[in-house]
Design a protein that fits this description.
By secondary structure, the protein is α/β, with parallel strands linked by helices. It is built from ten helices and six strands; from the N terminus they run E-H-H-H-H-H-E-H-E-H-E-H-E-H-E-H. The longest helix has 17 residues.
Length: about 220
Amino acid sequence: MTKLCIFDLDGTVLDTVHSIAHYGNLALKMNSIEPIEVEKYKYFAGDGARILIRRMLEHRSCYNEELHSKVFDDYNRAYNADVVCKTVIFDGLKDVLDRLKSEHYRFAIVSNKPDFAAKTVANALWGEGYFDRIVGQKEGSVLKPNPHEVFAVMKELGVEATDCVYVGDTDTDMFTGKNANLYTIGVLWGFRGREELEKSGADAIVATPEELYQTIIQQLG
């Protein structure tokens, strides 16, 4: 029986906030707009790059469609040139996922991050093939919390909902898991806090990778 953990990427398996802020502020600077403090990016990110840029510009009270398109292109061009910049694996998480892997769990990532960036950064830091599937946003694809990509991954790997959990750090992730009828685990080391995860219906909330391990074992056996 295949047991599957589907993860969000930003703020869940990789600490990317400094990377997102770095490239976000670089794109703003290229368009003569003041930079934004890193902590704000925890609330801008999570729903895809286009919405990230929109939130940045709205925060600076300068949003318009032409500027949005320009900053979006500048951001993606810079980010895609070096997606690993300022990105690290959260402390203790690799050990926990290695233990689960040794117990024959399979892993996937479903992210709203652009597909090229998601695949490149996850493979660079976790290793090629560590995750059985990595799915990011592609042209014409639907974003989370729509569960379409989650269902597609489960079908490809032959996994039923009862043998799968969804792990993330934002309400978008919890809604995604719920929309796919999965057990949802919210992590507190990411971009948002306990209140948001509780309000969005997380089945479990964990503060450490070890708690994540125990929760997955208890749920999937």
